[in-house]
Design a protein that fits this description.
Elements lengths: L18 E2 L5 E7 L4 E2 L43 E3 L10 E12 L5 E8 L5 E7 L6 H15 L6 E4 L5 H11 L2 E4 L4 H13 L23 E2 L8 E8 H13 L3 E3 L3 H4 L8 E8 L3 H9 L3 E7 L4 E6 L3 E7 L4 H16 L3 E7 L6 E2 L1 E6 L7
Parallel strand pairs: 5-8, 8-9, 10-16, 12-19, 13-17
Antiparallel strand pairs: 1-18, 2-3, 2-11, 4-7, 5-6, 6-7, 11-13, 14-15, 15-16, 17-19
């Protein structure tokens, strides 16, 4: 099966203006349809290891500027966190990221404690609250969301992203009653990194911590499905761009209307030399704008090369995985795909998708900056 083939359907958007790539792609190889045309494998020197530290929660974020007297999280792992950046307009915080799940912590009854974590993508808003396991329902969650607004003086968010499919029913009910749009997505990167940080600085230091305990709400990783026709392209290629060009593309997305999504690289703590080559996937089609428009509604998370099945896997939303492309499996093509994955790991999981009319074009109809992250420890 060749997933990247000509499809049907059309979306017109006369206001759309394609962004201009500020640096030409450096191709690893170009793959029209089933055919994989191998170029020279890049030398190891082309990929410099970059540092991807954990997202820190600053000292100032521990002390709450609101009136509630909350113990310092750094001193007391049982304390709940309330933080609102005093320099941020509360009315400007319109999108939240949310996790509502059990933690590897037992209460005095010997039952797992649940925790609600809420933040925005800049971590200007941070909220944590513990719950006993016998009050976990949509009413509890709805009341907690309202209390956040009351305590901080922020409006109900327009959108909330979450990444655990098992909690979708409870979260959906709570958000629907409050008129909040719910977005299932693994692009909750600030929340995921905050969870990783809290595991080491809070949960492991909690007196009820259970070492080795696993969450019963493990993240799904289903078998990939066939790609819908409206996502078909015509050609694709493993490519690479200097990090300086990546930053310009992300800036371009923020300054004007374009299909795609960037990442807050400063917040994520990603430090890469401007000359470092970041691996990506370029997709070419005569339907570049319609394809970019469809992709824009998918919450694109990552692309991975499945070496065993000689295919590329596109992950979107929470747990949806598509066979995005296939290629003829040979030692040469396996080597190319393996080199691309090695390059991703060398850059801390950073990679991208670019949609174009032609692989040699400098115009880009859509650009998504992506990041591979391991599942959270809880």
């Amino acid at each position: 099966m060749c997933s990247l083939s000509i499809g049907s359907g059309s979306i017109t958007n006369p206001a759309f203006q394609p962004c201009k790539l500020n640096s030409n792609f450096s191709f690893l190889s170009k793959m029209p349809l089933h055919f994989f045309q191998v170029s020279k494998r890049p030398s190891k020197d082309q990929y410099r290891t970059c540092r991807f530290p954990k997202c820190p929660v600053s000292e100032s974020s521990i002390s709450s500027p609101v009136e509630a007297e909350i113990a310092d999280e750094g001193d007391d792992p049982t304390a709940e966190l309330r933080y609102l950046d005093p320099e941020v307009d509360p009315q400007s915080i319109s999108e939240w990221e949310l996790d509502f799940c059990s933690r590897p912590i037992l209460d005095i009854r010997g039952k797992k404690i649940w925790e609600l974590l809420v933040c925005d993508n800049s971590l200007s808003l941070q909220y944590s609250k513990y719950f006993p396991n016998n009050v976990i329902n949509s009413v509890t969650l709805k009341n907690a969301l309202v209390s956040i607004c009351d305590e901080f003086g922020v409006p109900l968010p327009e959108k909330i992203r979450f990444f655990r499919s098992q909690m979708q029913t409870i979260i959906t009910r709570a958000c629907t009653e409050l008129g909040i749009k719910l977005i299932p997505s693994k692009r909750c990167l600030s929340l995921l990194l905050w969870l990783e940080e809290r595991y080491e600085t809070v949960y492991m230091r909690h007196p009820g911590f259970q070492k080795g305990a696993k969450s019963f709400l493990a993240l799904d990783n289903p078998f990939p499905m066939e790609l819908p026709e409206n996502l078909y392209g015509e050609k694709w290629a493993f490519v690479q761009l200097p990090f300086s060009a990546i930053k310009e593309e992300v800036s371009s997305l923020e300054k004007r209307y374009a299909f795609g999504a960037g990442l807050d690289l400063d917040l994520l703590g990603i430090e890469v030399d401007d000359k470092n080559l970041i691996p990506g996937l370029a997709v070419a089609t005569s339907r570049a704008v319609p394809l970019a428009a469809w992709m824009n509604g998918l919450e694109v998370c990552s692309v991975e090369a499945d070496l065993a099945r000689a295919s590329l896997i596109l992950s979107v939303g929470i747990s949806t995985r598509y066979v995005y492309a296939t290629y003829k499996k040979t030692p040469a093509t396996t080597s190319e795909a393996e080199a691309w994955e090695v390059a991703k790991k060398a850059c801390g999981g950073l990679h991208f998708i670019a949609i174009q009319d032609d692989l040699d074009s400098e115009d880009c109809a859509g650009f998504w900056l992506l990041l591979d992250l391991p599942p959270p420890p809880v």
